[in-house]
Amino acid sequence: MKKILVINAHPSATSFNQALTQRYVEQAIALGGSVDIIEIGQLNFDPNLRYGYQKRMTIEPDLLAAWEKIQSADHLVWIFPVWWGGLPAFAKGFIDRLFLPSQAFSYRENSSRVIGHLQSKSARIITTLDQPGWFYRWYYGEPSTRQLKKATLQFCGIKKVKVNYVGTVRGSTEKQRENWLQQVAKWAAQDNRKIKS
Protein backbone atom coordinates (compact mmCIF):
# COMPACT_ATOMS: atom_id res chain seq x y z
CA MET A 1 0.00 0.00 0.00
CA LYS A 2 1.29 3.44 -0.89
CA LYS A 3 1.87 5.89 1.96
CA ILE A 4 0.91 9.50 2.63
CA LEU A 5 3.04 11.55 5.02
CA VAL A 6 1.47 14.72 6.48
CA ILE A 7 4.00 17.27 7.76
CA ASN A 8 2.48 19.89 10.05
CA ALA A 9 4.96 22.76 10.10
CA HIS A 10 3.09 25.01 12.54
CA PRO A 11 4.88 25.05 15.92
CA SER A 12 1.65 25.24 17.97
CA ALA A 13 -0.46 22.17 18.69
CA THR A 14 -3.58 24.37 19.11
CA SER A 15 -3.45 26.20 15.78
CA PHE A 16 -5.93 25.99 12.91
CA ASN A 17 -3.12 24.26 11.00
CA GLN A 18 -3.44 21.45 13.55
CA ALA A 19 -7.16 21.17 12.78
CA LEU A 20 -6.40 21.06 9.04
CA THR A 21 -3.80 18.36 9.65
CA GLN A 22 -6.20 16.24 11.69
CA ARG A 23 -9.01 16.56 9.15
CA TYR A 24 -6.71 15.57 6.29
CA VAL A 25 -5.40 12.55 8.22
CA GLU A 26 -8.87 11.43 9.34
CA GLN A 27 -10.25 11.59 5.81
CA ALA A 28 -7.30 9.78 4.25
CA ILE A 29 -7.52 6.99 6.85
CA ALA A 30 -11.30 6.74 6.44
CA LEU A 31 -10.73 6.10 2.73
CA GLY A 32 -8.29 3.29 3.47
CA GLY A 33 -5.07 5.26 3.09
CA SER A 34 -1.84 4.50 4.90
CA VAL A 35 -0.98 7.77 6.67
CA ASP A 36 1.83 8.94 8.92
CA ILE A 37 2.42 12.36 10.53
CA ILE A 38 5.38 14.56 11.39
CA GLU A 39 4.61 17.36 13.85
CA ILE A 40 7.67 19.57 13.39
CA GLY A 41 6.85 21.65 16.49
CA GLN A 42 7.05 18.54 18.68
CA LEU A 43 10.44 17.37 17.44
CA ASN A 44 13.58 17.78 19.53
CA PHE A 45 16.38 19.18 17.35
CA ASP A 46 18.58 22.22 16.85
CA PRO A 47 17.05 24.16 13.92
CA ASN A 48 20.25 26.13 13.35
CA LEU A 49 22.61 24.74 10.69
CA ARG A 50 25.51 25.98 12.79
CA TYR A 51 28.40 25.36 10.40
CA GLY A 52 26.60 25.77 7.10
CA TYR A 53 27.83 22.98 4.84
CA GLN A 54 31.45 23.19 6.04
CA LYS A 55 30.99 20.67 8.84
CA ARG A 56 28.30 18.08 9.51
CA MET A 57 26.23 18.28 12.66
CA THR A 58 25.08 15.11 14.39
CA ILE A 59 21.54 14.38 13.26
CA GLU A 60 19.24 14.02 16.26
CA PRO A 61 17.05 10.89 16.65
CA ASP A 62 13.84 12.84 15.93
CA LEU A 63 15.30 14.05 12.63
CA LEU A 64 16.50 10.56 11.71
CA ALA A 65 13.00 9.20 12.35
CA ALA A 66 11.49 12.03 10.29
CA TRP A 67 13.83 11.30 7.38
CA GLU A 68 12.86 7.62 7.43
CA LYS A 69 9.20 8.66 7.18
CA ILE A 70 9.97 10.99 4.26
CA GLN A 71 11.92 8.30 2.43
CA SER A 72 9.19 5.67 2.86
CA ALA A 73 6.32 7.96 1.82
CA ASP A 74 4.89 8.15 -1.70
CA HIS A 75 3.11 11.48 -1.17
CA LEU A 76 4.10 14.36 1.12
CA VAL A 77 1.56 16.89 2.40
CA TRP A 78 3.04 20.05 3.93
CA ILE A 79 0.72 22.21 6.06
CA PHE A 80 2.00 25.54 7.39
CA PRO A 81 1.11 29.22 7.92
CA VAL A 82 2.69 32.07 6.00
CA TRP A 83 4.61 34.28 8.44
CA TRP A 84 6.32 37.40 7.07
CA GLY A 85 5.85 35.97 3.61
CA GLY A 86 7.78 32.79 4.43
CA LEU A 87 7.83 29.54 6.36
CA PRO A 88 7.89 29.47 10.18
CA ALA A 89 11.50 29.54 11.38
CA PHE A 90 11.33 26.08 12.98
CA ALA A 91 10.03 24.62 9.71
CA LYS A 92 12.87 26.26 7.78
CA GLY A 93 15.30 24.83 10.33
CA PHE A 94 13.81 21.38 9.79
CA ILE A 95 14.55 21.67 6.07
CA ASP A 96 18.04 23.12 6.64
CA ARG A 97 19.01 20.30 8.97
CA LEU A 98 17.42 17.42 7.06
CA PHE A 99 17.50 18.14 3.32
CA LEU A 100 21.26 17.78 3.10
CA PRO A 101 23.70 17.15 0.24
CA SER A 102 24.18 13.39 -0.36
CA GLN A 103 20.99 12.78 1.63
CA ALA A 104 18.26 14.69 -0.23
CA PHE A 105 20.30 15.35 -3.37
CA SER A 106 23.76 14.91 -4.87
CA TYR A 107 25.81 17.06 -7.19
CA ARG A 108 26.66 15.53 -10.53
CA GLU A 109 30.37 14.89 -11.01
CA ASN A 110 32.23 17.99 -12.25
CA SER A 111 28.96 19.92 -12.47
CA SER A 112 26.75 22.27 -10.49
CA ARG A 113 23.68 20.28 -11.55
CA VAL A 114 22.04 17.98 -9.04
CA ILE A 115 20.33 14.61 -8.82
CA GLY A 116 17.33 14.66 -6.49
CA HIS A 117 16.97 11.63 -4.23
CA LEU A 118 13.22 11.99 -3.66
CA GLN A 119 12.12 11.08 -7.16
CA SER A 120 8.90 9.10 -7.76
CA LYS A 121 7.17 10.98 -4.93
CA SER A 122 4.46 13.63 -5.22
CA ALA A 123 3.50 16.44 -2.86
CA ARG A 124 0.80 18.90 -1.88
CA ILE A 125 1.35 22.19 -0.04
CA ILE A 126 -1.53 23.59 2.04
CA THR A 127 -0.80 26.97 3.55
CA THR A 128 -2.87 29.35 5.65
CA LEU A 129 -2.89 33.10 5.08
CA ASP A 130 -4.20 36.30 6.64
CA GLN A 131 -4.99 37.54 3.12
CA PRO A 132 -6.62 35.99 0.06
CA GLY A 133 -4.50 33.44 -1.78
CA TRP A 134 -4.79 35.35 -5.07
CA PHE A 135 -3.36 38.48 -3.39
CA TYR A 136 -0.42 36.57 -1.92
CA ARG A 137 0.23 35.00 -5.31
CA TRP A 138 -0.02 38.07 -7.52
CA TYR A 139 1.14 40.91 -5.24
CA TYR A 140 3.85 39.18 -3.19
CA GLY A 141 4.82 36.45 -5.66
CA GLU A 142 4.02 33.62 -3.17
CA PRO A 143 7.60 33.39 -1.77
CA SER A 144 7.03 30.66 0.84
CA THR A 145 5.29 28.20 -1.46
CA ARG A 146 7.62 28.94 -4.38
CA GLN A 147 10.61 28.30 -2.11
CA LEU A 148 9.25 25.00 -0.79
CA LYS A 149 7.92 23.82 -4.15
CA LYS A 150 10.72 24.80 -6.51
CA ALA A 151 13.86 25.29 -4.42
CA THR A 152 13.31 22.35 -2.04
CA LEU A 153 10.88 19.67 -3.21
CA GLN A 154 11.44 19.88 -6.97
CA PHE A 155 15.16 20.50 -6.44
CA CYS A 156 15.23 17.18 -4.53
CA GLY A 157 13.39 15.32 -7.28
CA ILE A 158 9.67 15.69 -6.46
CA LYS A 159 8.26 16.93 -9.75
CA LYS A 160 4.49 16.86 -9.08
CA VAL A 161 3.65 19.44 -6.41
CA LYS A 162 0.20 20.99 -5.93
CA VAL A 163 -0.26 24.23 -3.98
CA ASN A 164 -3.46 25.24 -2.14
CA TYR A 165 -4.17 28.40 -0.12
CA VAL A 166 -6.52 28.68 2.85
CA GLY A 167 -7.53 32.18 3.86
CA THR A 168 -8.19 34.80 4.93
CA VAL A 169 -7.98 33.00 8.31
CA ARG A 170 -7.71 36.10 10.51
CA GLY A 171 -11.22 37.15 11.50
CA SER A 172 -12.81 34.12 9.85
CA THR A 173 -16.05 32.64 11.15
CA GLU A 174 -16.63 29.11 12.40
CA LYS A 175 -18.60 28.43 9.22
CA GLN A 176 -15.70 29.57 7.03
CA ARG A 177 -13.30 27.37 8.98
CA GLU A 178 -15.58 24.38 8.66
CA ASN A 179 -15.76 25.00 4.90
CA TRP A 180 -11.95 24.98 4.74
CA LEU A 181 -11.83 21.77 6.76
CA GLN A 182 -14.26 20.21 4.30
CA GLN A 183 -12.07 21.38 1.42
CA VAL A 184 -9.02 19.78 3.04
CA ALA A 185 -11.00 16.52 3.30
CA LYS A 186 -11.66 16.75 -0.46
CA TRP A 187 -7.93 17.23 -1.14
CA ALA A 188 -7.19 14.19 1.03
CA ALA A 189 -9.68 12.17 -1.03
CA GLN A 190 -8.08 13.36 -4.28
CA ASP A 191 -4.59 12.47 -3.06
CA ASN A 192 -5.73 9.07 -1.82
CA ARG A 193 -7.26 8.21 -5.20
CA LYS A 194 -4.21 9.35 -7.17
CA ILE A 195 -1.61 7.42 -5.20
CA LYS A 196 -3.76 4.27 -5.32
CA SER A 197 -4.11 4.43 -9.11
Tell me about this structure.
The structure is a single chain. α1 packs across α6. α1 links the parallel β1 and β2. 30% of the residues are buried. This protein has six helices and seven strands. By secondary structure, it is an alpha/beta fold. Strands 2-1-3-6-7 form a five-stranded parallel beta sheet, sandwiched between helices. A two-stranded antiparallel sheet has the order 4-5.
Described by the principal axes of the CA atoms, the overall outline is: globular
Strand-residue proportion: 15-25%
In spatial order, strands of the major sheet run 2-1-3-6-7
Count the DSSP helices: 6
Helix and strand composition category: alpha/beta
Unreliably modeled segments? none
Overall pLDDT score: 96
Largest sheet: 5 strands, parallel
- The amount of helix comes to 25-40%
Number of strands: 7
Radius of gyration based on Cα positions = 17 Å
What distance separates the N and C termini?
11 Å
Could you state the order of secondary-structure elements as H and E? EHEHEHEEEHHEH
Walk me through the topology.
Layout: E1 3-8, H1 16-30, E2 34-39, H2 61-72, E3 75-81, H3 89-98, E4 105-107, E5 114-116, E6 122-128, H4 133-138, H5 143-154, E7 160-166, H6 174-196
Parallel strand pairs: 1-2, 1-3, 3-6, 6-7
Antiparallel strand pairs: 4-5
Outline of the structure:
With 197 residues, the chain is of the alpha/beta class. The protein is built from six helices and seven strands; from the N terminus they run E-H-E-H-E-H-E-E-E-H-H-E-H.
Tags for this model:
7 strands; alpha/beta; 197 residues; two-stranded antiparallel sheet; 6 helices; single chain; 5-stranded parallel β-sheet
